[in-house]
Write a structure and sequence with these properties.
223 residues, alpha+beta, 7 strands, elongated
Length: 223
């Protein structure tokens, strides 16, 4: 019986390692790979298969290192940077076009052609677009529309799948400096997807009106 359970443990470890390689999210990949490699290291050590025990042990240490680093850098403004671009910036449009299906999952009403000069409504509504970059990698984008009277409406706040477990959008919203410099006093987000509400609360948004989490409009005052 003990040998059966030992074999089950070995298969679980191998399965986690394989499954981790199918993950697009960098944090999820690291956690699953850590669990699988740690189990595999213990399994091979128990059977005294030392080359594989050593290999998986080293992989476990590497995963621990990257998890610590990823969590440490998650809110580090020295790692992430906000770059303001024109709404019709070629790179912005390329990124959003490549990820159009994923963007539509979180912002179904967002239309790429509306976000640039010449698009529907682009002549009478001012827009601001921001790329969030992690060193040289684009990890997210925020686009807001000037609704007048010191109000900016969020049209897009999107993160690439690799960094979906983090909140790089905070570097646009944090402190209000990006928006305060443009004269905005509040940011509004209409009809957020249910999965976005926890993120909105972390960014300082609150439901307008009745204060319920199901509110169609969320508002954040600009410091």
């Amino acid at each position: 019986m003990s040998s059966v359970w030992l074999e089950v443990v070995g298969w679980v470890g191998s399965g986690l390692v394989v499954w981790s390689l199918m993950q697009a999210r960098v944090l999820r990949f690291r956690w699953m790979n850590l669990a699988g490699s740690a189990i595999a290291a213990g399994y091979n050590a128990w059977l005294e298969i030392w080359p594989f025990a050593a290999m998986n042990g080293i992989i476990t240490v590497i995963n621990v290192y990257w998890l610590i680093r990823l969590h440490r850098e998650a809110h580090d403004a020295g790692v992430y940077e906000v770059v303001e671009v024109r709404p019709d910036d070629p790179w912005l449009r390329h990124v959003l076009r490549v990820h159009a299906r994923d963007v539509a999952t979180f912002h179904p009403s967002f239309a790429l052609e509306d976000a640039g000069d010449g698009g529907a409504g682009a002549d009478d509504r001012r827009r601001h677009a921001f790329l969030v970059v992690r060193r040289d990698e684009t990890v997210g984008s925020v686009i807001v529309r000037d609704d007048g009277e010191g109000t900016a409406a969020v049209e897009l706040d999107w993160v690439t799948p690799r960094f979906r477990d983090f909140t790089p959008g905070e570097f646009v919203h944090r402190g209000g400096g990006v928006f305060a410099g443009k004269g905005y006093r509040r940011i509004v987000w209409d009809d957020p997807a249910p999965g976005a509400r926890d993120y909105l609360e972390r960014m300082g948004f609150t439901p307008e009106g009745d204060g319920e989490r199901g509110s169609r409009r969320w508002v954040r005052a600009v410091a």
